[in-house]
Amino acid sequence: MGPVIAPTEGMGPSWCVLIAALLCAFTTACNRLDDQLQHHREKFESLAASAGFIGNAWLSGSTSGTYTATALSQTFLLVENERATLASTPDALIDRRGAELSDSAEALSRVIAALLDDVRGADAAAVRQRLATIPFAPPTYYGRNR
Amino acid sequence: MGAIVDLVLGVVTSIGGFVEVGSISTAAQAGSEFGYQLIWAIAIATAMLAMLTEMSGRLAAVSRRTVAAAVRERFGIHFQLVPLTAELLIDTLLITAEIGGAAIAIKLLTDVGFEWWLLPLALLIWMLLWLSGFAVIEYGLGLLGLITLAFVISAWQLHPDVTDIGRSFLPTTPNHHYTRYAFLAVSIVGATISPYLLNFFSSGAIEEKLTESKLWVNTATAYLGMCFGGVVSMGVLVTSAMVLQPRHILVDSYEQAALMFVPVFGRYAIPLFAGALGIGCFGAAVELTVNTGYTFSQVFNWTWGANKPRRDCARFVTAFTLVLLMALAVALIGFDPLRLTMLSVALTVVIMPLVVLPFLVLMNDRKYVKEHTSGVIANGVLAMLTIVGGILAVVVIPLEMFGG
Description:
By secondary structure, chain A is mostly helical. Chain A has helices at 13-59, 65-87, 90-94, 96-120, 124-131.
């Protein structure tokens, strides 16, 4: 929220309109940043959940190593794209939540790369361990309409 | 007896040919993001498609003209250049997206980059069109497409709440992401009602020599085939809603979408998904490609026909070959298959009024359809939905693409 400025006696209607417009713009900018961060967070959470699902499916023998490697590579690329998009917005990185998101995303990227390596080496124990370290807790705000 | 066989074959192949790259990606995204909430969009789009295909078959059977030829004759070439150009652009993008979808399906099974499969797939499409007749294109690929029934089986096996699904047939507003919701609704409509289908069905009716006496077969095929096809599309949405949404997985790639089969089909999941995606996309790419040949030939009055010897219809072959090459060129430049698909299907809704409205005029012209003109309700509903969809698409596409 922006600072609240009390109108003074000398202020004409045009000043009030200008201040209101500035306040509106400031609030909108804040909301836009919130929306952007929320959007990035959703994407990272989705990609983290995908990596978890892909890894577990491989462990249970439901998917082949070929598909698992393809899917993890694609997930890795999507995480990197999302990270690049996040990094291209300085405002988002200056924000504390944005910086934390960026750090978690980097960790996610590393875990997926390691998972990919473990799957290629057919190392089930390492995959199991790695899955437990995937960042991004399940979201709480996803009250999606069903 | 022959009519019954035609009917069964028509319905079965309509089901098999219904789902392709657009419907799989839009329904999978809709299910993963909004649960069952967008089922109404599939239902409305399916009803519109059934009405339109029935009309295009009726026009062909009564007037012995395809939609493209009749529009050319009724409105003149100057008028037709606009929808023709728009349709050509969209068809090229859609062919690229379909080839991309088929290439991704092979990638899922081989781990070889999808870019490597684009050229062989385009060559295979061209060879199929060069060597085979209409029956192979329509029935052969349609029958193979029955593999897409796996989406219905998976939805059934997941035991969805039927009351919830039933409630979703009525449009409701979402409690988040309004622009995204509207964009997905528009995309579902665009993925279901591709304008090329109008001319493809009427050309098919001419190829198969559909007559006025068999109009009931056309009507039954259109309504039964499309309604069952719509159920397959709903199967994608329901499976995605039940498997991906609770796990908070949003569909940003086909690799993620493929996961929806894992809980039901286990180790057969990925091959089944790849098969459904690959065959659906390949079939649609073949139909789209041959339809561009049909459209050009019918507009410019060249000899055409998938059943004719190729040397007798050289310009028809040249037309579809050139469009296929254009689509391949777009594909080889480099693209994200899922994004291109979503963009193409949404743009389809923008151009829909250009294609559907003149067609509705034709369907009320007794010179073409004699006493078989369309009713007031069908005309009104189709015209209204097409215009509303077009306006909505013009609004939501920029918002979605450039951040609403």
